[in-house]
């Protein structure tokens, strides 16, 4: 961390992740990060039972409690200011980013429905986290109907709409709890809800509207289309979704007296329009030129990049004019599970003797398995895996898919499977890159941000698998730094995001480079991955979908109460 300087101005970036929110104090002149703090969400991710009740959730649900987000403002922001040692009077702006698509059902004044006594035990009244995948059947209907009607917007989403997005989740609420749907005045991205809490003004950000809200060329899907999905859904856009849209880097308003008391920041400073964690990271890495793909690698991975032209890329999460920076088409793709998969394996598939050996070596289990895996020659483990433990976001856009190992024997060891999973996520990224290249949107540089860049074996595997040099963001808090850049623009310190990124962004170019013999070895394994990918993912064998159906039937006969299991932080 750098020291504060006299006469300098500062901004706050607040990054809302899956399990915590983090605040970073950043110097406007050069992007130096002066202090930070993290607040863990008390309720974490809710997947088993609702807090304080015995209401059990079905499979594929993932909920959160919105008050946890407010606590980040009350706790992490003041702590970050103390850590930085700066005078709050010298802070000129604040900006936030969020995981998308995280949806909050609220009444007219912004109060979340779960905070109303009559809805406190209704699952659909809670926040639906990005990885809530229980709306897959609605997503399939949305995509199928759009394709049959020739809806012009479908191609900009790679031909498929995800169960993670606003329309699928909204339709699920209508069809499974119409009383909650009727009580909901606004269906709000958490990225916008938290800005609403800061400013007392609701502004819908252009990023999530375009990528998650099917907003293209100034309009949403028509009422006629929505009525064909479900007559009760006809007014979804008009009644629940449509709202004033703010452009990225613009001020959404100013800090209210209430939020100033929460944060310790001056009332009236600029609050930037909300944004998404992945998209704000591109400016943080100073990677806003065409062809620079930024991968934000954490529990999941989001891939974002800019291009001068519009193209339809199969399975992408959207192409939006100005979706990352003004004047360029912003593209998004992603993988629903990456760090989550590694965490699942360590928490559920590693025998006690490995845990003991890691402790004896003074290492965490992840680090210990990485050391063992790094000693292997490529292909030595005899395995290939599919990285679909949390479904497939790109390029198949199907969250009914699930993980696979092929090649296991009685000699297979934990480090073999761990390395195969590392490689599987790299193969998933290569599949995405090849889809972009084949569609006329060439990827020329791969820039990594997020917590997983701390694993050098994983980074080298990615460089070898995708056969591109890997640059890395020179910040441990990429999204928060990116939000701070947007705060500086909203406060008027820079004329636009690209100018601010050049001054405040941080990146180290070409840190990992592909090794030719490794590239050749991984080409062979990638061919096997692709065979499995297409066999299970493109309709040759629907076993994964059948198993999901069997699981849902069995869950309907499961006990109605259970002790809530909190998910560990990764």
Describe the structure.
Helix 1 (67-84) packs across helix 9 and helix 15 packs across helix 18. The chain contains 19 helices and 22 strands. Helices cover 38% and strands 18% of the residues. By secondary structure, the chain is an alpha/beta fold. The strands form 6 sheets. Strands 1, 2, 3, 5, 11, 12 and 13 form a 7-stranded mixed beta sheet that branches. Strands 16-17-15-14-20-21-22 form a 7-stranded mixed beta sheet, sandwiched between helices. A two-stranded antiparallel sheet has the order 4-7. A hairpin with a 3-residue loop joins strand 14 and strand 15.
Mean of pLDDT: 95
The backbone outline, from C-alpha atoms, is: globular
Task: Please give the largest β-sheet.
Answer: 7 strands, mixed
Radius of gyration, rounded?
23 Å
So how many helices? 19
Write the layout of secondary structure elements.
Elements: E1 10-16, E2 20-27, E3 33-40, E4 63-64, H1 67-84, E5 91-98, E6 103-106, E7 127-128, H2 136-149, H3 166-176, H4 178-183, E8 186-189, H5 190-199, E9 204-205, H6 206-211, H7 223-229, H8 236-241, E10 245-246, E11 251-254, H9 257-263, E12 270-272, E13 275-276, H10 277-284, E14 292-297, E15 301-307, E16 318-321, E17 329-335, H11 339-348, H12 352-360, H13 365-374, E18 384-386, E19 404-406, H14 414-438, E20 445-449, H15 456-466, E21 470-473, H16 478-490, H17 497-504, E22 507-512, H18 516-537, H19 543-555
Parallel strand pairs: 1-5, 5-12, 5-13, 9-10, 14-20, 20-21
Antiparallel strand pairs: 1-2, 2-3, 4-7, 6-8, 11-12, 14-15, 15-17, 16-17, 18-19, 21-22
